[in-house]
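Folds abound. Consider this:
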Amino acid sequence: MPLRIVQSKQNARLKELRRALAHPGRESLGGWLGLAGIEGPNLLSEALRAGLRIDCVFAAEGSEHLLDGLRLAPETDVLLMPEELLTASLATETPQPIAALVEPPHWTWRNIFGGRPEGGLADSTNSTPNPLIIILAGLQDPGNLGTILRSAEAFGATGIVSLPGTVIAWNPKAIRASAGSVFRVPLLSATSAECFTRLRETNVQIFSTAVEGATPAQRADLSGSLALLIGNEGNGVPADLAGQADQALTIPCSGPVESLNAAVAASVLLYEASRQRSALTSAPLQFPGVPR
């Protein structure tokens, strides 16, 4: 694996990494424009496992061994530099000695409804007759988005739709919180009009979330084709979007709290939907293992 030595912070690729981490590209409706920056050998391994194209890898001197065993493509640019030079370009408080620029996957509505990629490609003909979709309406915290991505993968969601006003999924904090799920869970941006039209056309039932006047999640039928509408952390689901829902759900709490964190609420509802679906097929839930 050939390495190029870098000694200047003015290096064009380092500038590209800083830009990707500080201003993570932009989403178009249905796709992503630009490369995404990731930090750490674990996320790099996850990106490779997901079949993403790795455009460039950055390694601090003395940490080259962390790249051993990784199946980087011959055309991948690999840069070696002093640790302080790489550290100055990263976004975390405790920077790791490995970073990379990767090409995010391109997902389509077919994937959101259950089409799964094969070999890292997003155009699989495989599909599920029972999609489980998350709709994010104005979610602002990247850590919450990353957690929802991770829960979505753990509990078998087929995809996530990001409505205008929602934080970008390729924000570095969202990527880290997802623990690599952002590389594998189908996610695309759409207007609310397009989103609800697509759901109606495919007979997907829409469930909103509410604190009061709603059906307890365990009493609702979440075993069919459905979409869970998750709103802003402070204001919940906007009234105009809640009006599009077929039913409102609430999560009963015995403690003296008014509401749950958006990511926690989404995770509980995903678990309940997964539990009900598992009960129909008599298949036990498969837990992903000890949290990392």
User: Anything to note?
Assistant: The chain is about 30% helix and 20% strand. The longest strand covers residues 53-60. The chain has two domains: 10-103, 109-281. The radius of gyration is 20 Å.
